[in-house]
């Protein structure tokens, strides 16, 4: 029997329920919806109001929120996830790849030559020609791209073709001449000018040596930059990403992205890590964000060493296949120290590229040194190491101990494992791409693609994290299958942990009431599909702040 006081309680309780029943702007159902919340990993429906998640639960609950103006999306069996974030991507280069000569997927040096020839015939360029995306892994020629490959079809016009990892490029003879580079040119610190057995230039310039041809380029115009970002937003949302952590942003790009957001043209959530050499305005002005938070700038990016493929990664012991080489420090510790001290003092997040075991150990040493100034601040600073590729087993627990985030790119492993055993030997492979060991040690691991170094497809990254096999299904003991992640662990790499790594775990990273409505829908159910089916899937629905930015259901 109801007493007046229980009646009153019923009325009071009913009020918030009535307020919550205001119609939603968007309701999504019709497929499995994974939340990345351990307590309730799967729901039937989500509802969105004013760009935020208003409901996550059963279909009946969502139906009650459908009003006359509610947009209702039927997933038709596709699977929905919290918005996938690429925690390490280079947006301008992704756009550039779309707008210039795209060499991604070239299966031989001969194919690069053919693609260059076709590009020249079609575009008839008058000035410098640039291309991006070749990588010699698996090429029948068994070597890097050389200037002769380019000279064959471009004898007179300067051509620069960047290797996919961004750490090397091949210049043709015309470009070398125009830049005044010959066999006598001194090798810049932190770089390599490759020569053949005959002592002649091969045309390949590695790491800091790439600066020797910088004078051939005009800085991109404002219009070119805007076009690059437009192209990048389009390709990223079509892959199913709702956000990226944009690495090595040049300072002039920051206001351009903010402008695009103000005009409603930024369909992607962007978190900027500014190239440390240009970060003066960030240090003086402090972290910044657009009013809706879509474009946020809070960090800097540093480079400790080079890359493994071009033997620039700094190792303790020499490369197994090049006994004279131990890689290079792209930035000397003496240069990094004052930058790190200043960043810690001013609340600027630091991301440092480190690939080799010596690169990673040194970056951790430098972080620890900086944290000594203010240990509590240091532990909460969420500084990151980008790639964290080759670690001495003893360095693995240091990530958790120091509160340092490991930002890793699963697709690097499944590409690199074709040559990493030759570069490193079996022993050093034990700490290579060791994402499971890092997670088990308590470290936060976030996932990304490093696009355009890799294609930049979330499903390839997810597959690589859980399968540790190449796209043909190949793997062996050297690939250390024990480092595979579970599906639930892999999901967090791109969702909740990615949010934490940009200080946005209250707003992003899971399907929870109150968070921003960022969703990624894929044709495959990543939690249950057979491993091999994962990379064959595609994005079907991308939603950012409740706005549908890509829909191919
Ligand atoms: Zn990168």
Number of helices, counting only DSSP H or I runs of 4 residues or more: 19
Number of strands: 23
Instruction: Label the structural class.
Output: alpha/beta
**What compounds sit in this structure?**
zinc ion
Summed up, what is this model?
By secondary structure, the protein is α/β, with parallel strands linked by helices.
Give the topology, please.
Blueprint: H1 4-20, E1 26-34, E2 42-49, E3 52-57, H2 59-63, E4 71-74, E5 79-82, E6 84-89, H3 91-99, E7 101-102, H4 109-123, E8 129-134, H5 147-151, E9 159-163, E10 168-171, H6 173-178, E11 191-195, E12 201-207, H7 222-239, E13 241-249, H8 253-262, E14 269-275, H9 280-285, E15 288-289, E16 295-303, H10 333-346, E17 349-354, H11 357-371, H12 375-380, E18 384-387, H13 396-402, E19 405-408, H14 410-416, H15 420-428, H16 435-440, E20 445-447, H17 458-467, H18 487-494, H19 496-500, E21 519-522, E22 539-544, E23 547-551
Parallel strand pairs: 1-4, 6-13, 7-8, 8-9, 13-14, 14-16, 16-17, 17-18, 18-19, 19-20
Antiparallel strand pairs: 1-2, 2-3, 5-21, 9-10, 10-12, 11-12, 15-16, 21-22, 22-23
């Amino acid at each position: 029997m109801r007493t007046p006081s229980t009646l009153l309680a019923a009325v009071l309780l009913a009020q918030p329920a009535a307020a919550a029943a205001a119609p939603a702007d968007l309701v999504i159902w019709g497929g499995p919806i994974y939340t990345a919340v351990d307590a309730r990993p799967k729901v039937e429906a989500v509802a969105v109001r004013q760009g935020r998640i208003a409901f996550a639960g059963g279909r009946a609950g969502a139906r009650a929120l459908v009003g006359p103006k509610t947009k209702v999306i039927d997933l038709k069996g596709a699977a929905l996830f919290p918005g996938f974030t690429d925690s390490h991507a280079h947006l301008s280069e992704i756009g550039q790849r779309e707008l210039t000569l795209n060499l991604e997927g070239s299966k031989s040096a001969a194919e690069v030559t053919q693609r260059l020839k076709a590009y020249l015939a079609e575009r008839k360029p008058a000035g410098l020609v640039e291309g991006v995306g070749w990588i010699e892994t698996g090429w029948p020629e068994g070597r890097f791209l050389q200037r002769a490959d380019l000279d064959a079809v471009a004898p007179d016009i300067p051509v620069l073709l960047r290797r996919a990892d961004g750490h090397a490029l091949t210049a043709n003879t015309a470009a070398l001449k125009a830049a005044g580079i010959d066999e006598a040119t001194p090798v810049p610190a932190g770089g390599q000018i490759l020569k053949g057995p005959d002592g002649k230039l091969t045309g390949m310039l590695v790491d800091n040596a790439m600066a020797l041809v910088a004078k051939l380029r005009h800085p991109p115009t404002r219009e070119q930059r805007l076009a690059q970002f437009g192209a990048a937003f389009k390709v990223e949302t079509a892959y199913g990403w709702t956000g990226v952590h944009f690495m090595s942003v040049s300072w002039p790009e920051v206001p351009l992205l903010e402008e695009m957001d103000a005009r409603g043209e930024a369909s992607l959530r962007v978190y900027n890590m500014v190239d440390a050499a240009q970060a003066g305005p960030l240090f003086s002005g402090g972290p910044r964000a657009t009013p809706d938070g879509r474009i946020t700038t809070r960090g800097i990016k540093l480079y400790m060493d080079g890359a493994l493929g071009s033997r620039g990664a700094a190792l303790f012991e020499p490369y197994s296949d090049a006994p004279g080489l131990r890689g290079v420090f792209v930035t000397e510790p003496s240069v990094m120290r004052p930058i790190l001290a200043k960043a810690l003092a001013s609340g600027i997040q630091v991301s440092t590229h480190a690939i080799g075991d010596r690169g990673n150990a040194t970056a951790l040493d430098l972080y620890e040194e900086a944290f000594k100034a203010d240990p509590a601040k240091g532990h909460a600073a969420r500084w990151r190491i980008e790639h964290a590729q080759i670690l001495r087993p003893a360095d693995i627990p240091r990530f958790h101990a120091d509160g340092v985030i490991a930002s890793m790119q699963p697709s690097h492993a499944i590409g690199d494992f074709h040559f990493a055993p030759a570069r490193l030997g079996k022993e050093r492979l034990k700490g290579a791409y060791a994402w499971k060991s890092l997670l088990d040690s308590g470290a936060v691991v976030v996932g990304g693609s490093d696009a355009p170094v890799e294609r930049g497809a979330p499903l390839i990254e997810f597959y690589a994290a859980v399968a540790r096999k190449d796209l043909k299904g190949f793997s062996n003991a050297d690939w250390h299958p024990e480092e595979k992640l579970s599906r639930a662990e892999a999901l967090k790499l791109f969702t909740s942990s990615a949010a934490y790594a940009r200080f946005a775990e209250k707003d992003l990273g899971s399907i929870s009431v109150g968070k921003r409505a960022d969703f990624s829908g894929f044709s495959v159910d990543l939690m249950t599909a057979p491993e091999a089916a994962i990379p064959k899937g595609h994005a079907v629905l991308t939603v950012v702040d409740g706005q549908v930015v890509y829909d191919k259901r």
